[in-house]
Design goal:
By secondary structure, this protein is mainly α. The protein has 10 helices and no strands.
Length: 186
Amino acid sequence: MEERELTALAAAFQRGDEDAFERLVEALTRPLIAMAYRYTGDWEWARDLTQETWVRVHDRIRRYDPVRSFRAWVYTVHRNACLSHLRRAWVRYETMPGDDALGRAIEPAADPLADLERREFHRRLLIAMGTLSESQRQVFARVYLEGVDQKEVAQALGIKHTTLRATLHFARKRLAAALREMEETP
């Protein structure tokens, strides 16, 4: 569905049209589930987080500004729900968040030690992401966790591609420093 259609449905929903909300849910649920799966690596969590996002959207629709992209607004709400989920301590013990999203390039290791090292790196990366500014975290998550093209992310966020690249550069630099600090600290 095109952005202008989504915006029109969102405006109708803001006026109280529940059918418009149902159409928004139908249009965007599949990509939201896929996005959550890339964060969690688990289809059940992905569906639960998507449902949680729709509850938040329903409760917060008055905050949506129709001048901005509705899809970008929903994706931001959803990304924040996914990142909040990953920050929960019990999630880190139950599953290794981001095994699929962060480790797509890393094949599961047959060696248990290598698998343990990979999981520890993911845990530290999630902690290190807490040191990023909101814009850095948002850009890093969209590009590296969601796998969205940099130009598409820049357009969705309403920033220049060069600004996005600079933000990514400083995010990677800050992450590297935070990860080095964690390694040096016993």
